C-alpha cells in the first residue's frame, strides 16, 4: 500500500512538473522537493540532468524548455 501511495504521489508530481516546461530548473526542483516533503517522503534525491541522461531514476519534471530533466532517485 505504501508503494502504491508513493507511485500515485509521483505521478501527480510528474503531471504538475510537465505542465510548465519553461520554468527555471532550480525553482522547479524546489517545488517538487517541497511536495515530496509535504507527503512525508524522505531518503530521496532530485538531480537536474541534460535531456536523455536520466540513468537509474524516474523523470519527474522537465525544465528550460525541455532541454533538462529532473530525476528522482530513492
From TrEMBL:
Keywords: Signal. Residues 1-19 form the signal peptide. This is DUF1161 domain-containing protein. It comes from Pseudomonas umsongensis.
Amino acid at each position: 500500500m505504501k508503494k502504491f501511495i508513493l507511485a500515485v504521489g509521483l505521478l501527480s508530481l510528474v503531471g504538475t512538473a510537465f505542465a510548465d516546461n519553461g520554468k527555471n530548473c532550480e525553482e522547479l526542483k524546489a517545488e517538487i522537493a517541497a511536495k515530496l516533503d509535504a507527503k512525508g517522503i524522505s531518503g530521496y534525491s532530485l538531480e537536474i540532468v541534460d535531456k536523455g541522461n536520466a540513468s537509474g531514476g524516474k523523470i519527474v519534471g522537465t525544465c528550460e524548455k525541455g532541454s533538462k530533466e529532473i530525476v528522482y532517485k530513492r
